[in-house]
Amino acid sequence: MTTQTKNASRLLEAVHETAQDLHQAGFIDWRRMQHYDALCLEHIPPYTSERIRALRERYQLSQTVLASVLNTIPSTVRQWELGAKRPSGPSLKLLNLLDRKGLDVLL
After folding, report:
1. How many CA atoms lie less than 13 Å away from 63 in the CB half-sphere?
2. pLDDT at 79 over 50
3. I need a surface site. Which of 16, 25, 45, 84 has the fewest CB within 10 A?
4. Is the domain of 56 the same as that of 83?
């Protein structure tokens, strides 16, 4: 992680903490707090075909089982691993969760 990225994440962390304090004090409503939550989310790195295959092999899952865990179809996982498609949206977030927290979180 570069120094600029670290500084940005520290800044976002400080902003989020301040917003939480203001929300608890009643100065920021629930809807505005959700906006701050969304702004301060960590960036999810892209998952290459090699990274997806390595992740699947780390947990000893078949493409079909990984597809089931991610609530997608096996051909999608196959296309990710071939590099024909890239995961996005909820699939990308679930891959990131699997990578960071492990299989038990998704089951």
Report:
1. 12
2. yes
3. 25
4. yes
What does the pLDDT read at residue 96? 93
Question: What does pTM read for this prediction?
Answer: 0.66
* Cα–Cα separations (whole angstroms), residue 13 to 40, 54, 71, 101: 7, 31, 32, 21
Question: Could you tell me how many residues make up the chain?
Answer: 107
Note whether residue 44 is domain-resident.
Answer: no
Question: How many domains would you assign to the chain?
Answer: 2
Residue 29 within a domain: yes
Give me the DSSP letters along 48-89: -HHHHHHHHHHTT--HHHHHHHTTS-HHHHHHHHHTSS---H
Confidence of residue 99 (pLDDT cuts 50, 70, 90): very high
Element (H, E) at 28: none
Residue 44 DSSP one-character state:
P
24 assigned to some structural domain: yes
- Is 89 part of a structural domain of the chain? yes
